[in-house]
Amino acid sequence: MKIMQNRMDYGFEKYQQEFEEKALSVLRSGRYVLGDEVSAFEKNFAAYTKAEHCVGLASGLDALWIAVRLLGIGPGDEVIVQGNTYIASVMGITINGAVPVFVEPDMYCQIDADRIEEKITQRTKAVMVVHLYGHVADMDKIAHICRQHGLKLIEDCAQSHGALYKGKMTGTFGDAGCFSFYPSKNLGAFGDAGALVTNDPRLAEEARIFRNYGSEKRYYNKVVGANSRLDELQAGLLNVRLAHMEEITQERRRLAQIYSSSLHHKDITLPQERRDTHSVWHQYVVRTHRRNQLIKHLADRDIGTLIHYPVPPHLSDAYKYLNYRPGDLPLTESSADTVLSIPLYTGMKQAEQQYVIDCINAFT
Ligand SMILES: *Cc1c(COP(=O)(O)O)cnc(C)c1O
Hints:
Layout: H1 9-14, H2 16-29, H3 36-49, E1 53-57, H4 60-70, E2 78-82, H5 87-94, E3 99-103, E4 124-130, H6 139-149, E5 152-156, E6 164-165, E7 168-169, E8 176-180, E9 194-198, H7 201-210, E10 215-217, E11 220-221, H8 232-242, H9 245-262, E12 277-278, E13 284-287, H10 291-299, H11 330-338, E14 339-342, H12 350-361
Parallel strand pairs: 2-3, 2-4, 4-5, 5-8
Antiparallel strand pairs: 1-9, 6-7, 6-12, 8-9, 10-11, 13-14
Helix pairs in contact: 2-8, 3-8, 4-5
């Protein structure tokens, strides 16, 4: 049996007819940019997250850098972010000329809330929380720190669509929640797409203007903006998937629970869900010091795995200019050396998952 780490065709096939009908209807509408599907998606996604406003954008990275910029963060400012994130989180900061200040992860692979305050300086403007792997950071503590120190709070929710902290949606704890709808995300489009949610009407308004060359009214430009519109076809397809989000999340939670109760190996540490949170299991990430052997053991049995992520941003070539060295963030680096994402996807069949479980448990 061949098992891929992720597969998006199952997720398409599950709602194939609805997707195809929606795609045809958009194609036939003659309206391809900022039409009814985008407006409907913004309304639907705001309702889903219980945020007051949602602005559709072209990607998750755009949501991050546009949020950072519109919150007034720029050259010389510092933004606190976790070390073990996908590099796009960090680029959302550095595109604006601001400086990322890295914090080590806690046992749930999220920013360690107890290590944030020691990183705050005169130049700190914001904390960017990344709800990595679909898990949830310690939001009470983090929101409290941000309030006490007058810092903006930005959430990178590219992996946490629908994840809850004490019943409240990730993305709604601070100034802006930034979402990606890249195809492999829990709420995936069929190409690039993203959005920002916020309860701040001014930020929503500015983002709406910024994404469209800084113009509110056609050919009258208020500010130098960008072209970062969510396109109509993607919005239409996202409306289809969003209507099934409850089911999609429940399925991932069920698959994760089966892994957690069935995987048993002395060299493999399983992921855990923080108390009072509801993870959406974007990835099921185990940790092992025998990672290369485990990858090979599974590959020999036709099971795909991925490492999220092998190079932490502070040691990436892209960020050489920040002058970090190996050893500067030991927990982040040990995470990069030991994490492994095993197969988990919408439509995963029971026999597929059982095969993965059997092969992992038989690892010697
Ligand atoms: C995918 C991802 C992004 C970037 O989203 P794009 O839509 O690919 O630009 C940002 N942050 C995290 C944590 C991600 O997983």
